[in-house]
Amino acid sequence: MPINGQESLKEFIRIENSNLRNEIKLLIAEMNKDISGKIGELEVHMVTFQKDMLIKIFGIIVGTVGIAVTILKLFP
Questions:
Q1: Residue 10: partners with Cβ closer than 8 Å, 6 or more residues away
Q2: Residue 58 CA from chain centroid, whole number
Q3: pTM for this one?
Q4: SS (H, E, C) 28-74
Q5: What's the CA gap between 28 and 32, in Å, rounded?
Q6: From CA 47, how far away is CA 38, in angstroms rounded?
Q7: Interatomic CA distance for residues 44 and 50, integer angstroms
Q8: CA–CA dist 70, 40 (Å, integer)
Q9: Which residues of 30-55 are buried (b: 16+ CB within 10 A; e: fewer)?
């Protein structure tokens, strides 16, 4: 039969273990929120960058076609 002090130690360890488990769960939840927020920000930046690149590519194509038309008009 365990001594009263041993039961107290078991109870103390159980409570501490439970507290640590709860703290770890809170930290994980906090990190998940932070990571999902950062992923959302990255997606917005990527969409903006893609639109910017498409506009630049379109500008290059239009400029190239304009130069080609001008050359064709100069040298029939």
A1: 2
A2: 29
A3: 0.52
A4: HHHHHHHHHHHHHHHHHHHHHHHHHHHHHHHHHHHHHHHHHHHHHHH
A5: 6
A6: 14
A7: 10
A8: 45
A9: eeeeeeeeeeeeeeeeeeeeeeeeee
Q: Which amino acid is at 34?
A: D
pLDDT in tens, 29-72: 999 888 988 888 888 889 889 999 999 999 999 999 999 999 99
Q: Which residue has the tokens 């100069």?
A: 74
User: Tokens at residue 34, please?
Assistant: 């932070």
Which amino acid, one-letter code, is at 75? F
Evaluated on CA atoms 35, 40, 46, 49, the torsion sign reads: negative
pLDDT number for residue 1: 43
As a residue count, the chain comes to 76
Mark residue 2 as left, alpha or beta (left: phi above 0; alpha: psi -120 to 50; beta: remaining): beta
DSSP-derived 3-state class of residue 23 = helix
